[in-house]
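Here we describe the complex-level prediction in full. Unlike the single-chain runs in Section 2.1, the two entities below were treated as one system.
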Amino acid sequence: MKIIQQDFSVRFTYPVIFTEHLFSIENQSFIQLFPNSTTKAARVFFVIDSEVTAAHPTLVSAIAKYMDHFPQLEQIHVPLIVPGGEQCKNEPKWVDKILEMTSLHGIDRHSYITGIGGGALLDMVGFAAAISHRGIRHIRIPTTVLSQNDSGVGVKNSVNSFNKKNYLGTFAPPYAVINDSDFLLTLHERDWRAGISEAIKVALIKDLAFFERIEQDAEALASRQMPPMQTLIWRCAEMHIQHIAGGDPFESGSSRPLDFGHWAAHKLEQLTKYEIRHGEAVAIGIALDSTYSMLKGMISEADLNRILTVFAKLGFDIFHEDLLKKGENGTLSVINGLHEFREHLGGELTIMLLEKLGKGKEVHEMDTDLIEKSLQLLQKQHYSQQMA
Amino acid sequence: MKIIQQDFSVRFTYPVIFTEHLFSIENQSFIQLFPNSTTKAARVFFVIDSEVTAAHPTLVSAIAKYMDHFPQLEQIHVPLIVPGGEQCKNEPKWVDKILEMTSLHGIDRHSYITGIGGGALLDMVGFAAAISHRGIRHIRIPTTVLSQNDSGVGVKNSVNSFNKKNYLGTFAPPYAVINDSDFLLTLHERDWRAGISEAIKVALIKDLAFFERIEQDAEALASRQMPPMQTLIWRCAEMHIQHIAGGDPFESGSSRPLDFGHWAAHKLEQLTKYEIRHGEAVAIGIALDSTYSMLKGMISEADLNRILTVFAKLGFDIFHEDLLKKGENGTLSVINGLHEFREHLGGELTIMLLEKLGKGKEVHEMDTDLIEKSLQLLQKQHYSQQMA
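The structure predicted for the assembly as a whole is:
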C-alpha cells in the first residue's frame, strides 16, 4: 500500500452589498459586479419570485431598461417568473425549467443567473445554478428580512425531495449578494416580523450589545420603521457572514452553533404543516430554550423576561398549542423532535443554550422533564400575554 | 451602497491509495479510512459497475465478508449494480435510484457511498453523492487505467443531460480514492491501452523523464506487464493530483492546461459517435497537435517521430478517417470543433502545444491551413505504419 495525500485549499470571496433602488440607472451596485468589457457583454438570466413581481409590478421593465442601458450587459431571454415560497422547492419542474433554459440559451460558466426573491426561491435557483456546468455564477437578490439577514448571504442551496426538507443541495458560494431594502416595504406584516427572530438568535448567543439595540428598537421595528430594520439586517448579516468564514463553511463537522432554538422550531414547522413561518417557529424555539436555560439555572428569571418581552413587543407568539401534540409513541412530538435532531446531527446531540445574554453554551443532553416544565411555563406566559 | 466582503478558504484533503487485493481481510487500505469507533459503525453503501462484477464474480461476496469481519463497518443493503460506461450517465434513472436508496436507508452526511467502476460510473455516483444532503462522503475505487490515473483521482463528477456530455455536475473532492491494480488484469485490450494516452499527455507537456520512461517501457506495457503499468499510473496520478492542488482546483478561471490534444479528441469522439474510446481519441489529438507543433517549428521532426513511435509501439492508431469529414458549412468538422472549443472556453481560445518534449506552451490561435497539413501528414504516416 502506497499513498499520495491530496491537500489543497480553495478561496471563496463574494460581496454582500446593501442598497436601495437597485435597478435605477444611476445605481452602480449591479453593474459594478461585471467586467467592464467593450468586446464581450456579460450575459445575465433572471429568475424572479412571483410574489415579488406582484408587489413590484414595474420590476421586470426596470430590469429590462437597466440591462439595455449598459452595453456591458445582455439580458438572456425574459425573466422566468416562479411562484415563490416552499412550493417551488417541492416541485422538481422549476429546477428542470431553469436547467432547460441554460441549455436552450447557452447559459454557461461565463454567464450569470440572478435570483430575486425569498429564501425558498433563492435556495431553488441556487441549486439549479450550482449543478449546471459544475456551477454557473449565481447572483442572489434576497427580498425578505429573513433572506437578507440570514440564508441569502450564506453558501447553501437546496430543494426538497422524498418529502424531506432540503434533501438535495450543495454548498456553493454565490458570485454576489445584493440586499435592496425597497423590497421590504411591501412585505406582509408576518414576513417583516418573522425575519427578526434570526437576528435575536445571533444577538442572544453572541452579542449582548446587539440584543440591547434590538430591545431599544423593538417598538420602532414593530411599527415598520426602515432605519432600525436596515441596522438590524446589516448586523445580523455581518455576524452570519463572519460565522461562515470563521468556522466550518461547508459544515464538514457536526457542530451547528447557529442552531439555537432550531431543534424545536424544525419540529414545530412540521407539526403545523408549515402554517407558521420559519422565523415564527424560531421565535418559539428560542423562547423554549431560553426558558429551559433559566430552569437549568444558567440565566436569571430577569434575563428570561427581557427575552420574552422583546418577542412580545415585536408581536411574536412565544408558544403554539401544537407543541403539546403527542406522537404515536405517547411522547410529546417535540421530544421526539429532539431525538430526530440528534439523528440528523449523526448520533451525538449538540444543543445551544444560554449561559448569559449574549453568550451561548453548547450542551450534549437535555432533560425531558425540564423541557415539559418549560413548555408549561411558556404556555402560561403566552396566555397571560394574550389576556393583557 | 455599503459592502461586506465575504472571504474564506476551505481546505480539502483526501488520500489516493495504491494497493492490490483490496478486499482481502488482511488488507488495511479500506478499513483504515474509517474512525475506529466501538460504539458506532461506519455505514457504507456500495455502487458497482456491472462490467466489474462480471469480470470479478466473487467481488460482491468478498466485500460482504470484509464488511462483516470488522465491527466498525456496516454495509447498507446489498450493493447496487449499475451498467457501466457512458450509458449510466445518460439515463437519469441511475442517479434517481441512488438518491432513493439514500432516502430509504437513511444514508446521511455521516455515511459513505463507495463507487467501484470505470470513470463514467464514478462520475455518476459522485454526482448523486454530492447533491444528497449537500454531500455524502464519497469513496472512489476506479477500475480502469484511465480512471486510476486521471479522472478517478480528481474532484469532478457529472452526468449527461440535454444530449450534452457532463452537462450536470459539481466539483466535490472525494473522501478517499483507492486504486487496486487487480482490476486492471481483466480489462479489455483497448481499455488497458487507452488509459495510457493521458499519461503520455502529461509527460509530454510537463515531464521529459516520464516520457522517456514510457518510451523504454512501451513494449512491456503493450504486452500487459503489470509493474510498468503500476509505475505509469502512479506517476500520472501524482502529476494529476499535483496539478489540481497547484492550480485552480474548481476551475474558476478559463485556462485548461491539461487539455493538450483534447480539442480535436472531443470532436473526434462525437464524430465517431463515441465508437472510439476517450483515450484513443486523445492519442490521435496528441499526434495531431504534436505534428502541428513540428510544422510550426516548435519541435523537431525527430521529436515528433519519438512521439508517434511510442503510440505505434503501444498499438494506438494515430489517425482516424472521420477527421476528414466535412461539416454542413463545407469546412472540416474538426476545424469546426476548434471553434466549438473556443466557445466552450468562453470566447478566448487557449490551446496547449509543445515547445519541446516535456514542456507545453499555450497559444491563443491556430492556423487552419497548418491543421489541414498536419492531418495530411498524419494520414500518410498512419497508412505507412499500417503497411509496415
